[in-house]
Write a structure and sequence with these properties.
Elements lengths: L2 H10 L4 H26 L3 H15 L12
Length: 72
């Protein structure tokens, strides 16, 4: 455990049980979110590669019209 994490836990221990649970729940959500992102980016990017190729093909075939948000 890092020194900073130990310091944080020492401070959290001074809080009420309700506040400790709220902080713990928040941290668990952050950890799970980080894990989910890591797993998503660890997967092969085949679909993204196919989509990029299609966009390039559409641009080459002039099936894409340029424009800004005001022109939608």
């Amino acid at each position: 455990m890092t020194q900073l994490l130990q310091q944080m836990l020492t401070e959290v221990e001074k809080l009420s049980a309700r506040e400790q649970d709220a902080i713990a729940a928040y941290i668990l959500v952050l950890v799970e979110d980080k894990r989910s992102w890591n797993e998503a980016f660890a997967q092969p990017q085949d679909q993204l590669t196919r989509m990029a190729a299609k966009v390039r093909d559409d641009i080459s075939a002039e099936r894409v019209k340029g424009g800004g948000i005001d022109e939608l």
